[in-house]
Structure formats: C-alpha cells, structure tokens
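Example 677.
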Amino acid sequence: MLIYLGDIYHTSGIPSTPTPTNIGYIASYCKEKFGDKVNIKLFKNPHKLIEQIEKTPPDVLGLSNYMWNENLNKFVCELAKKKNRNLITVTGGPNLRSDKKSIKNFLSKNKEYDFCILYAAEIPFSNLIEKCFNFELDKDKLKNCKIEGCFSLDNKSELIGDIYLSNEKNLDYIPSPFLNGFMDEFLSEGYYPLFETNRGCPFSCTFCVWGISALHKIKTFSIERVFKEFDYVAEKTKKSKFWFLADANFGILPRDVDIAKKIREIYENKFSFDQINIYWTKNITDRTYVIAKTFGKLCQAYTALQSLDPLVLKLIKRSNISVEKLNHFKNEVADYTNGTYTDILLGQPGETKESHINSVFGAMKLGFDQIGGGEVRLLPGSEMDENISRINYKLMTKFRMGEGAIGIYKGKPVFELEEVVRQTKWITENEMTDLRSIRALIYVSTTLGELNYLNMVLVNENINIFKVVENILQNRDKNTQFSKMLDQLEMLAKDEWFNTREEATKFYYNELKNRTPEEVSPVKLNMWVLVKLLRSNDVYNQFLNEFIKSVIQTNNKIDKEILNDLVLLSKSRNFLRSCLNGIFDFKKEIPLSNKTLEKLREIKLIKDHFNFNSIHLVMDQRIGKDIISTLPDLNNVNDLQFSQYIQRFGINLQMKIQTSSSAIPLQNKANNIPDFV
Ligand code: SF4
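Predicted structure in complex with iron/sulfur cluster:
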C-alpha cells in the first residue's frame, strides 16, 4: 500500500522550518506495524508532494492540518482525488474543534477528506490502515465502519467515530522517526531538527489548543531514547542553526536537567547547532535555573507573561502561573542566557487599551529585552474559539491573509486566512487600530532592538515609551518620508481586515488578477516598518530625529548628552544596516560620556567595575558572516522577501556590547559565543 503523509506549508511563508517529526511518528508506528506491506513517503514541500502525486498517486494521503496550510491541504487533496478516485484521504492536527457537531460540520463542508483524526494520530491512523487492508481500500465500506480514533461520515451523512487517547505514559511504543531514518532527507535538506521529549501540558490557557483537559497528562519518551536521537542527529547533520524542543513546558520534569546537560555536552563536542529553542515551563522551580545556566547563551530566557493584568490572567486561566516567579526566573538567568523575551497578547478577555499598555510598559520595567505577541488569533479547538467564549466575551473577529501564506500550484493561487480578535467587551476595534501603529514602532525599537539600549535607560527613568511613540504619531513633522511611511502604516493597519472569509477571499482573488502572490501577500506590519527603515537612510535618520524630539517633548528631565550618546550607540548596532551601507566591521568602538556610562551601569548593561570611556560593539562571527554572504540587493528584493530575510536573524542582527576588559576571543574552540556583559 502506498501512503503519502504531508506536513506542508507555503514555501514563501516561513523563514525557517522544522523537520516533519509529527508525521514522522505516524509513519514510524505504521511502518513498524505493517512492515513491507506499506510504502510510506513523507513531504514538507507542497511542490514535491504534488509532483509525486502526479507521477505516482498514493492509495492513502494523510495531511496535518494547521491554520497556515488548510486551503493548501484541500487543494492537494482535490488534485490527488482526481488522479486516483479511490484515494483515501485523512486529515489531522490541532486545527479543529473537538465536539462531535463541529467534527460532523467539518467533514460535511470539506468533502475532500474521508477521515479526520484528533490529537495523537499514531494508533488511529494505523487502525485505519489495518481496515484499509481488510476492506481492500473500499472507501464505502471503510467510511461506514467504526474505526477507533477516526471520524467519518457514513452513507447517510451521519458521523461515525470517537476520539482515541492512549493511556500509555511511556511513549516509546512509537518508534523514533530520527533513529529509523525517516527524518534523514529533511535533515540533509537543512530543516532544523524538532524533538519531542514529552507530550501534554498541565495548564489550561484558553487561547491554546494544549489547554484543553484531554491533553493535560504528561507522557514521556524514555531518556535513553531521547539521548540516542540527539546523538544520531548530531552525527547526521553538519550544522543546524537551531535545535528545537517541542515540549510545552521544558523543565517541568526532574530529568529535564539531564536532558539539558546532554544537549550542552553535544554542543561542546560536536558544535552541531547555534541555538536551542524551547518553551520554558511556567511553574518555575530550582531546576529551571539549573537548566538555564546549563544552556547559557544557547537559549533565550523566554517567559510568556501574556498580560500583567489579574483579571485577564484569571479569564484566560493563567492565574495559577506565577508572574512573580516568571520574573524572578528571568532576572536570575538574564546574565547567563541569550537575552530575555516575553509575549503580551492583545485582544484577550478582560484586556482594555490601558491595561494592555500597562502590561507592555510593565514588561519593559521588569527588564525584558524583547516583547513579542500580537492580536489573539482564534485557534479552532481552543476554549477561546468556542461559541460560549465568543458570546460571553463579545468577541468580534475579522480575517486577513497571513504573511507569505500564499503560493501558486499548478497555475492556481492558493492562500490561507487567519481569524483574529478585533474587538471584545473590554476594547473597541478603533482602540485596537490605534494601538497597531504604536505597537509596530515599539516592536521595531525594542523587540527588534533598533533602540533597545536607549529604551532600557528611558524605562529605568520611568519614561513611558508609549507616550513617546504616541507623540511621534500625533505631532511629527508631516513633510518627511518617515511621516509618509507612518501615514501608510496607519492605512495598512485599518485596511488589512475583512469582515468575513468570503469577503477576504474575493478581495485577494481580485488582487491576484494583476499582481503576483508576493505583491499580494501582506507583510507583518512590525516587520514592514523595519523593512522601510532599512531601505532608506533618510527615513531611518528622520525616525531617530523624531524619536529624540519626542523624548524631549514628553520629558523635560532627560539629559540631552546622554540621549544623543544612546542614540549613537543604538544606531551603530544593526549589523545588517551597516553592511547595506558598505561597512562590514565585526567590532566597533563607540566613545561615550561618563554620564552615559553611569546610566548603562545602572541598568546593568555594563558591570560596576567597567571603567573605560568607550564601548565596544561586537558581532557574532558566524551570524555576521552569514549576513554578509547572503546580503540582499535592495533593488532586487521585494518587501516580503526582505521581511523574511530579517526574520531569519531577528534580534541577532544587532551587535552586542563587549567590555574591553573581558577580551574574549570571538572564536574559541567549539564555542564561539562571546561572553557578553
Ligand atoms: S499556552 Fe503553554 S502553558 Fe498554556 S496551555 Fe498552551 S502549552 Fe500549556
């Protein structure tokens, strides 16, 4: 039996992508059960999947369904069904409400799918394959019989099926898709390895699919097997930018300390990756600190605050996550890890415009270097998506295309829409629109680091960055290119929304008549601002002038010499911007006044004993070389491509402070991570 499994995505939509470990598990379990009776091929790239379907259509096609690929999946299914009208199609994944009425509705509306599976699909999918053998792929018989863990519509269009959840706490019954070679081709093509050491999450956040009770129990792969996977991947891949752990709460189990030590050991000996991406556990304990120190600069101290408002935290069911402990953790490990990051969402129940501003400013005051998070997207299957939440919280949603979530397949455009909260009982749509431009400027200046050091000092002086940015938007000099860019930003913030899916779909199809998909695709507005600033030195300098002017207008206590020093320091940090201007120095010396150095000491950017009158900015050698060797030609890249390029590096585009006294070589043994202060 020929089986294709796809975890596909629009290739222009995501700057870096993980191995399809999810479908790898399904394939591995199925292969072990049926051996040579099944021939299973896995796909990440939709073009390759389509090509293969046309060449040799499969008997069974299974596609993992997410917000970012649902229309692409449907397109591929329809095409495959034309090639093999007896084809059995299956969809699964988190993008589905779990009540039976919704599942029936989904299968009735999406006739291209014969079956759907919720949650862990390894056993249900193999149950289906077993029946496929028993019924010799007779679709009618299959759809009319109950298959454990699979849903279908029978010949009377009634729903058959149930959710299957294994009670097994040890997940080793699923063979490893790394150790059996299923992931080899993806590793060699440069996809970064996505590992899972455990599944499940004990928390109940209402905006998240993991928050539902069915997924609360934590199940584990054995540590021996996890270690073997790490060793295998380290041997197999020459170099990967990231290793990614998909665990919802890394550090929740005592053994996670040993896992962290093993990863660190592999890094020291093999130098197989530059960065570890993990989701830290929300219940901070002593071992979380040990893990953070073990990973060191390989990892960011990411703690997802989401809001600092008690009502919001209660309504999204995060009251049991201690903000104090998260913050204490961040403070304790900030010196060891590669920066501190948090998310603050907009559009959560209970959140007003004012409380959102307080949360973001509060996170800045707590000392987070980067603050991410956008408007809440409603994920089918999450509690927030349920009708009761929509009614109780008076959620009003709108639709837009995700950045790069579009492609041309067999000559036809296919794109994805996302449903986003635009108004709640607590915040109006106009207030959310007002916040959009403010948030974009704050994101660029803080999270992407353009004015990070300046903002850290301002926040320490209790100067509200929101007021500074709001003042720029209201009182800027209207005759500059920067001002025109802000006019356009405000227009885009209003115009990117559609009331219904149908309205959005019609609009984008119309646009596609005269424009390419890359021209039609929106660019995330935060990134769009940085794209515009980096494209033009004039616009960039006007932005800085407006920022300085606004700080002075909104605060009379700020010392102008310090302000100018900090602007100079901030403006010197973006390595990409320097390279675009023909300056490729990996190290820069920035002279600063004693007053400014004192301010940097206060916010602990330099240590108390630092006693030089200049600062050295340094660029990580590997990242810097990567930027130079891939430097885009601004005349030949569009905004979408440039945005994707910037997202590949993110905050790592920014040079960091190195004290002259530390004199740490930029490349030492297998560890070239400079020890920044
Ligand atoms: S947001 Fe994180 S902590 Fe909350 S339910 Fe989802 S995975 Fe668990």
